[in-house]
């Protein structure tokens, strides 16, 4: 049943900041929000804000389609909004929802099938007359195919998992030797997904269109966006509208997006993604058949509530008039990653948290002080969205917002954003009037300077930013745990952030001193990314303390185990695949030998130094057998 143009009881199959985002729109529309939660999210902000919050049974997770659908039936939900991630791109789940007589807030399963993986999306683009990045649409299973393709198109090339998203499952190869030695084929054969091959465009901007199409055939591009600033093919900063585009590109983007959605009969909100080269070539990448993390910047420059638009179109309503773009908006993703260590993941407990406020600032976050950051999901804590009448004003507000941001207990990427916002390559157009940055700019030109402490081209004068957003000690010390103190110097209040241990190991942790000298109490906490503290592993050994032990190099999740006990392996064979904050890491055999014991199972979380495999070399095995 719907009230007016919208569903009245909406189950949100998600958690964190996107769950909060949808809950608020459902309330604005006078509906009832229903939220499933797992035990660790019992005290989460989303569970507290929802009109109804229901526990998922047993060990169910947000990817458990049967449990989610059963809860929707039991609670009388008339629509399911999937958010992003989890089940949002699962066509089979969308079919099951529709089959249960519940409105699916997203495109049809058939449209999702046509766009849902990179292989079918390439075929759809070709049918629509939209040029994809040069590549091979059929599955790629061997190095010889890569080498043959590169002989025609040149290196670098990218192997991509067809089911990958958010920068996951992409392997860039630069020469024939890398093609022969990449573990990507071995990982795929062990259950790591199907691979396609594309030319890797090294110098390009990532431009996308926020689109919508209703069941009556009306189509609109709400705004363009520039998502060029990335690390490991994952977005860090986005802005709308896309600035400094060559003449005619906007019109081409709109026309290509329209044809893509019309080709598959798409109904709903979508994002069409493209690469724009310095020569003006525009290549299609993919269509995301869901709401995007960066949707907020399109909302800010148009006044359109994209979640409300999703709900209206899903209920059979019309798009209506989309206002023209006005002003400029920038989104900064605040992630638990250390710029001084190449954006290595950071985990821990958030001991202090303060977000910026004031004109033109919007915060999207689902965390509070006391939350625990683990490697279960992506490392994003929040999105800081700043909007101004012009791009220059939005940039100025972004700098102010960073200066006001305080995060303690984990290291965040604020230093990277601060550096970027001070670099002319990003803040100003080049001599041709275009934006000179590319998707590799962060990794090639910005991060090396942060790791060495050397300023880049036009870098702001402040050094790397500590977890609290304050200028920190040299980068070499930035990975150490820090404590913040408030002191007075000649009657002036000063915040001092120093590495723990400098003052005899009694550093104040978990916040700044209050007026009475006491510390700020921690909030009750929910584990931020999956389960919090784990029971200590009995007898766990580190890589340094046990011979014949292969240990976890970092805190991570075991995604695939590629061998069995007793297996004979050669040096370099793939043993285990780990994932930490959306990065895949491969564990290889250190030498020829035999797998004696596998100490973990797929889906478990391990800490750095935990035993993965007990291993014997061929010499030792031979002696035992003799």
Secondary-structure class: alpha+beta
- Overall mean pLDDT: 84
Separation of termini?
Answer: 75 Å
Low-confidence stretches: 455-480, 504-545
Main-sheet strand order equals 16-15-12-13-14-17-24-22
Largest sheet properties: 8 strands, antiparallel
Number of helices: 17
Name the shape in a single word: globular
* Beta-strand residue fraction: 25-35%
Number of strands: 35
Assigned CATH class of the domain at 2-105: Alpha Beta
The CATH topology of the domain at 2-105 comes to Rossmann fold
Cofactor: biotin
Biased composition (Gly residues): 505-517
Domain ATP-grasp: 122-315
Keywords: ATP-binding, Biotin, Ligase, Nucleotide-binding
Description:
With 626 residues, the protein is an alpha+beta fold. Among the domains are: 2-105, Rossmann fold; 134-199, 2-Layer Sandwich (Dna Ligase, domain 1), CATH 3.30.1490.20; 549-625, OB fold (Dihydrolipoamide Acetyltransferase, E2P), CATH 2.40.50.100. The protein is 25% helix and 28% strand. The strands form ten sheets. Strands 16-15-12-13-14-17-24-22 form an eight-stranded antiparallel sheet, with helices on both faces. Strands 5-4-3-6-7 form a five-stranded parallel sheet. A four-stranded antiparallel sheet has the order 8-11-9-10. A hairpin with a 2-residue loop joins strand 31 and strand 32. The radius of gyration is 25 Å and the shape is globular. The relative contact order is 0.09. The model is unreliable at 455-480 and 504-545 (pLDDT under 50). One of its GO terms (molecular function) is biotin carboxylase activity. Keywords: ATP-binding, Biotin, Ligase, Nucleotide-binding. Residues 529-543 have a biased composition (Low complexity).
